[in-house]
Amino acid sequence: MKEKVRVASGQGFWGDLLTAPVDQVRGGPIDYLMLDYLAEVTMSIMQKQRARDPQAGYAKDFISLMREILPDCVEKNIKVLSNAGGVNVAGCAEAIKDAARDLGLSGKVKIGVVSGDDILDRLDEFADQGVEITNMETGEPLSEIRDKVQSANVYLGAAGLVEALDKGAQIIVGGRLTDTGLTLAPLMHEFGWKFDDWDLVSAGTIAGHIIECGAQSSGGNCQYDWKNIPDLGRVGFPIVEAFPNGEFIVTKHDATGGRVNVQSVKEQLLYEMGDPKAYITPDVVADFSSINLAPDGDNRVHVFGITGNPKTEFYKVSIAYSAGWKAVGTLVYAWPDAYDKAKAADKVLRDRLDRLGLKFDLILTEFVGVNATHGHLAGEPSADIPEVQLRFGVRGQNKADVERFTKELAPLILTGPPAVTGFAGGRPKVEEIMAYFPALIPKTLIETKVDVIEA
Fold first, then answer.
1. How confident is the model over 354-401, as pLDDT tens digits?
2. Which of 162, 317, 405, 413 has the greatest number of C-beta atoms within 10 Å?
3. DSSP string, 284-314
4. What topology does CATH give the domain 321-436?
5. Sign of the four-CA dihedral 242, 217, 320, 46
6. How far is the C-alpha of 12 from the C-alpha of 35, rounded, in Å?
7. What are the residue boundaries of the structural domains of the chain, listed by start?
8. Distances (CA, A) of 175 to 43, 58, 103, 208
9. 424 pLDDT higher than 70
10. Which H helix or E strand runs over 241?
11. How far is CA 212 from the centre of its chain?
């Protein structure tokens, strides 16, 4: 058993800083690199991509990254865990295998493939079996939106990842693997933690939660003393140095920007927080109220004292479905009377849409620079505010009505209040709306499959 395991975060979401995982691999010692690509809406995007192209459906950025860092990972024996497989995990694994061969690494890389999360093709089977799938927030039955469903994925925990590591995989890809499981699995594998040692599993889960959003725990998007956070242009992504007893240090590589301290870690701990005593994952119900934080030197925070409770009998399911169409456009009104001009333009546009007889589920106006962030709490702006952006959006079931709206914004430039600009982006684009349907499903209905292939 190792005395310490270093797990580095290299990706907080699909589209995160491209240089971060490279810097993690080359900037200092690490044992594992975890890369989180998926969000709730991401799965539906990938499902649509695969519908157009059977070879698509995964994060192709991950393949480009692996082509750059795979030689380093092989040389340094760094293992990579990712949920970049999206809805085409097998295709992602094959692309990694091709990359390894192109790099002359045939026979030197084992790829773990974790699947079983995608249950889109099983929804009707479950319905026939009498399995009730309901929206856990509204109680709405799945049957009411079944014909609009684009994706349905179970949040799988660490078990499949641990199995792949136990089988010798160096690069592991999966679909909707939990963010926290990508960090928990290496610790369970290396330290031999048992799946029912709830305190240790909770500690590994909380370690994963702290680094799952990338630099958000190492100075990025940090409110506390943000003006004095050094060199965010070279921000160092977080690293967990974990120990067999469940304690760990949150840190980052030396000579990188950003900052790791108790405050930055606290802010990340509050991310997506519900009941602090019951943070539910597939692996454990973690107790965030048990967490102790203490400084441990520059850019080092000691985390200890964590406890947890037994896992539930259910998996959470992320279901995305088509819920109509939307379009959003903007215009900027300049001083004098910028806010009054923007409000007048809003009224003119609403009157015109009403006369056209267009039907929308919602029309939403935001006055950016006045109240878009804080709403009515912002109060009234000063009379000499220099500029206000009118952001005007519509949402509806009829695509033709939404498309007609997109042709009504530009005319305001010459037929509405004066001193308007900011239309350089052109006519608003019509976009399909993906709505979120969270549900629970018994774990007994889901089978996780783990394969290990050699490049």
1. 999 999 999 999 999 999 999 889 988 888 899 999 999 999 999 999
2. 405
3. -EEEGGG-EEEE-STT-EEEE--EEE---SE
4. Alpha-Beta Plaits (3.30.70)
5. negative
6. 7
7. 5-117+155-312, 321-436
8. 9, 9, 25, 17
9. no
10. strand 239-242
11. 9
